[in-house]
Amino acid sequence: MTATGPEGERQANRHLDSALLGIVKTLTHLAWMIPWPAWSAIAFAAGFVSMLSKQRHVVLANVRHARADDQPLRIVAWYIGAQQIATHLRAVIGTLRAGFRLPDTTNHLILEGIEGVRPHLGQRGVIIVAPHAGPYTMLGLMGRRWLAEQGFSGELAIVARMFRPFRSGALMDWFMDYFTRAGITVISVHEQPQIMAKRLKNVLENNGIVVLLVDEPTPTPSAIVPFFDSAIKMPIGPVRLARATGSVIVPTIASYERGRKMKITLAAPQSPDGTVTEEMHRLARTLETLVGRNLNQWAMLTSIWIDEKPGTPAPPEGHSYADLHLHTQGSDGLLHAEEWIDAARDGAIRVIAVTDHDHIETVREWKTRDPEGTRHVIPGVELTARGRIVHLGVLFSGAIPSTLPKPGTPLLDLVRWARGIDGSIVVLVHPLPILWRQQLRGMANAGLLPDAIESRFPFGGNRALTIERAARNHDLAILGGSDGHLSPGQIGGHATLFPGETVDDLFTAVKERRTQAVTLPRLDRIPKRVYVMQSLYSWLLPLRGIPGVPPMRAVLLRRARATAQRGGRQKLLQPLRSTGTGQSVQVS
Question: Which of 252, 284, 306 finishes a domain?
Fold first, then answer.
């Protein structure tokens, strides 16, 4: 998408634009002559054909970054990429059809999460921010119909910009006139920034709604934010507008559902209470989760990734990163405890926690031997509850307990034990699919809720938003942890952002519920066979007293470490160290 040229260029291209506009109007009629299922099938086929063009590199990059934790098979990645292109084509066709006749949202629109937004409608400004996904061009039209049914009479404005080859603005004029007749205000992104900001501010100050697409750079000021395992440029206008007008930001995504239905998913409204940088990071994390859930419908066909700077982005001013879930050879990790220190420096991680499985002696000995060098290291443990699939993390701020509960102790008894240790923090780590809701309810009914819950962790799928919503409902702190077992480059893949820089600052932030879970660029790509070897190494841990088992574990450990090192750390780490994008860590 590009800005229109100066006036001379507009005049020179006026006739061409008029001809193209006539073609577009003809296509709007044609689009209604062919049934939507037929168009959908055509778009799907065209998506696969397009994967033979250079466009595949863009969509495959989207898949690679969004699925960094669990790279799909190549054929699966191609299938997802073809669906992304097909979604873009469906959006174009849907827009043409809407140009002839407005869509009927009565029976074809599904709204998810509207309960959190409804109290704000007509009471304060609402900024809808969305990625280019599903029927993204129809967000305003779909929302206008529904809002009218709800009695909302305020102004709804969208920001749009024009594609090549349209230069004179003829199509934009037609587009704006068409949306105006539908009751929607259209503001061109190519207006002077001060004028555009003034118009948007006026809409919001009158308790209206503004719809913005934010997952690619625009001519307006932008900021680099972490996104999946890399970073992108995202316009900062939504956050500035929200802060200036007291509006709420509602991260949103549109998607196509079965049949002819379309869906709008609205995340929890975000009040701009923090700094611009903090709110931009929050917004990016929420959109990341929404996109991750709907990756096949993310119609981003422009290269947006800032891969030339893949190092860990510096945290917002006055904040630091922590990785509170690391394992050593004391239980089932492949690394010595000291190796996490160097990894923390490379990954811009300020505070780390060693949380071996049902084992505290390794970190106790390390803290005793080198208290100064481990002043940014939190001693912790990952306790195994009954059934051995539920784990409870405990971080210690004071004295380390002399003994630990036996593995297999009921979960509530583990919480009671941890509660009896002064200054401890209890964490429900890597919540299991489906079961975690039941676990939280049981802990709440017993009055034994944890202090915090992990919402971002390896293989967590797309559950972060759901877990964080439950955390707010139960007043729990939100943490991220890499669950690092295998390689130094794993550190900080998922981390905790907190105000301050020391262990005491972190504990205070958890108690005050001021932590945030983040996903950061990864230093390593771990071969999947390393996970298999590490799992075998872990499963043999309870059997290490049996003759012959320790040598087997030693062989697995040696092979897993060697394979992990060959997996690319030396290739990836050197460029990362040279970027200078991360904050240095002082843990020794």
Answer: 306
